[in-house]
């Protein structure tokens, strides 16, 4: 729709300009010059629409047109995510809302951030039952596994996500969200479990870190923070505004201290704005409901 309007506008501007220059309203001039110029704008728009994917692949960029297409829930990967890992899909929706709001608050690419969040965990479809958000009724699969094996399952969802993205030919700008949303973060729970079990050889910290790379853009860094914050706030027993703010600030501070934001160009002011945005969105999401007294009908 935007492309069509742009083509019509370009065609009109060209036609009006040539008429103003020549002051010629003869049927022959209009037929031979004005109409072809008007049609030129529409034809150029059609050419751009047809060749858009080619230029995106050549230059490694992605347009809003393609992003909107990828955000459609009828996309094959998203349809699979809904059916095979519904908990992960719901988690991705929440992360996308958090991340898009934060991106827009600091002037980053909000739409790219939202779509990247949709696809950041697609690798969990391979073994969805091993991830907390998909363990609805069944017990935790990791209870029967050694920490070293649990670690491999968790780490592999990034590798499997990259393979899936390649299979579905996702744009590289979207693919970047898959490894970068974890950076080189430590899989803290299973590392601590390995330490508690006294397995010194298997408890090498470097073995319990994601392979990276660390986020290299503001958009992937925001998704890393949103992903961590969403999981931490979901596990809270009580979602008061103060507790939400405390956990958001703690998570972001830990990621900063761990060096996960070193490769992107986020400023301290922007990080503070991101934290404030997360708190605002999460507080609205978990807002308390007014408890109304029960009505007693006297007859």
Q: Largest beta sheet, briefly?
A: none
Q: What class, by secondary structure content?
A: mainly alpha
User: In terms of per-residue confidence, which ranges show pLDDT below 50 for 5 or more consecutive residues?
Assistant: none
| Helix percentage | 55-70%
- Tell me how many strands there are: 0
- The share of residues in extended strands comes to under 5%
Number of helices: 13
- Give me the strand/helix succession: HHHHHHHHHHHHH
Radius of gyration, whole Å: 25 Å
Amino- and carboxy-terminal Cα gap: 62 Å
- Gross morphology is elongated
Q: Could you tell me the mean pLDDT? A: 87
Give a nutshell description of this structure.
It is built from 13 helices and no strands. It is an all-alpha fold.
List keywords for this structure.
about 300 residues; mainly alpha; 13 helices
Protein described:
By secondary structure, this protein is mainly alpha-helical. The protein is 64% helix and 0% strand. It has helices at residues 2-22, 27-59, 64-70, 76-84, 86-106, 110-119, 147-167, 172-175, 177-180, 188-196, 218-234, 241-257, 268-285. The protein is elongated, with a radius of gyration of 25 Å.
Task: Indicate the topology.
Blueprint: H1 2-22, H2 27-59, H3 64-70, H4 76-84, H5 86-106, H6 110-119, H7 147-167, H8 172-175, H9 177-180, H10 188-196, H11 218-234, H12 241-257, H13 268-285
